[in-house]
Design a protein that fits this description.
Number of domains: 1
Largest sheet: 5 strands, mixed
CATH class: Mainly Beta
Structural class: alpha+beta
Strand content: over 45%
Order of helices and strands: HEEEEEEEEEEEH
Shape: elongated
C-alpha cells in the first residue's frame, strides 16, 4: 500500500508542470526597451512594468527562439502571448491588446496607439516546450506622434502670415 502511494506521488510530481513568474520594473518607458528571457520547461508568465509620462503610442514585437536537434525540440515556446495592460498590477488592470507569438513573428510589429499617461505592463506568457525550455525576445519602442490636422492648419496660417508680411515689406 505504501509503495502505491509513493508511485502515485511520483507520477504527479513528474507530470506537474512548473509555473514561473518574473516581474521587471522599467520605470519610465525609454525610447526603446528590450526584454529577453530564457524559461524552463513548463508554463511561464512574465510582467514588464513601466509608466508613460504623456499620451504616447508604442510599437512592439515578440519572437521565440526555436532550436531542434533532429526531431527533438531543444528550445521552443508554444502558446506565446504578448499583451499590453493599463494598470500597475494584474488585479487592477485593463487589457489594451494582445497578440500571439512564435518563432516566425520577428518581423511583425504591433502598434498600441494613443495611450494615456499612466502605469502599464506587458505580460509575456506561454509554455516552454523544449527539453531546455525556451527563449523569447521582445522590443517596445515609443513611436513618434503624428501631428493633428489643427497643427498643419496653424502652421499653414503662420506661413501665410509670413508671406503677407514679406510682400508688404517689399512694396
Amino acid at each position: 500500500m505504501r509503495l502505491a502511494q509513493l508511485v502515485t506521488a511520483a507520477i504527479f510530481a513528474v507530470s506537474a508542470t512548473a509555473s514561473q513568474a518574473a516581474v521587471y520594473d522599467w520605470g519610465t518607458h525609454g525610447k526603446t526597451q528590450v526584454g529577453s528571457l530564457s524559461v524552463s520547461a513548463g508554463d511561464f508568465s512574465d510582467l514588464y512594468r513601466f509608466t508613460l509620462g504623456k499620451t504616447s503610442s508604442l510599437g512592439g514585437s515578440a519572437v521565440s527562439v526555436e532550436n531542434k536537434f533532429g526531431n527533438i525540440d531543444i528550445l521552443k515556446i508554444t502558446n506565446g502571448s504578448f499583451a499590453l495592460y493599463k494598470g500597475s498590477d494584474e488585479a487592477h488592470s485593463q487589457l489594451v491588446k494582445t497578440f500571439s507569438f512564435d518563432g516566425t513573428t520577428a518581423n511583425i510589429s504591433h502598434v498600441f496607439s494613443n495611450l494615456d499617461a499612466g502605469s502599464y505592463f506587458y505580460k509575456i506568457s506561454g509554455k516552454g516546450a523544449g527539453l531546455a525550455g525556451g527563449v523569447y525576445t521582445f522590443t517596445s519602442s515609443l513611436t513618434p506622434a503624428v501631428p493633428e490636422p489643427e497643427t498643419y492648419a496653424l502652421m499653414g496660417l503662420g506661413l501665410t502670415g509670413l508671406l503677407l508680411a514679406r510682400r508688404k515689406r517689399a512694396r
